[in-house]
């Protein structure tokens, strides 16, 4: 199951919400890092262009923190664009 989780930058500023699975949350809770790789779906590249990247998440003081705030923002923007394109 996946749920929306708030993601923060290293300074504690809220960056946005993304879905993480229970398995990913267990890995974070155990002190692990999660690497998220993303790319534009092939069928939407003509519409949205080609975007890809990677960022890491970790649990710090009870909050999920991104070690790549700008990359996470690009990922969230891509998710929003995909939702609009599929509407």
Structural class assignment: alpha+beta
Low-pLDDT stretches are: none
The helical percent reads 25-40%
* Number of E strands: 5
Strand-residue proportion:
35-45%
State the shape.
elongated
What's the helix-strand series?
EEHEHEEH
Question: How would you write the strand order of the largest sheet?
Answer: 2-1-5-4-3
Structure description:
The structure is a single chain. A hairpin with a 5-residue loop joins strand 1 and strand 2. A five-stranded mixed β-sheet has the order 2-1-5-4-3. The longest helix is centred in the C-terminal third of the chain and has 18 residues. The chain has one domain. It has three helices and five strands, in the order ββαβαββα. The chain is α+β, with helices and mostly antiparallel strands and 87 residues long. It starts with a strand and ends with a helix.
List the helices and strands and how they pair.
Layout: E1 2-8, E2 14-21, H1 22-29, E3 34-39, H2 45-48, E4 52-60, E5 63-66, H3 69-86
Parallel strand pairs: 1-5
Antiparallel strand pairs: 1-2, 3-4, 4-5
Give me a quick take on this structure.
By secondary structure, the protein is of the alpha+beta class. The chain contains three helices and five strands.
């Amino acid at each position: 199951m996946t749920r929306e989780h708030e993601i923060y930058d290293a300074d504690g500023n809220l960056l946005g919400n993304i879905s993480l699975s229970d398995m990913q949350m267990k890995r974070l809770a155990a002190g692990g890092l999660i690497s998220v790789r993303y790319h534009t779906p092939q069928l939407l590249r003509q519409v949205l262009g080609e975007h890809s990247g990677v960022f890491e998440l970790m649990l710090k003081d009870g909050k999920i923190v991104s070690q790549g705030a700008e990359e996470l923002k690009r990922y969230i923007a891509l998710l929003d664009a995909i939702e609009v394109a599929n509407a």
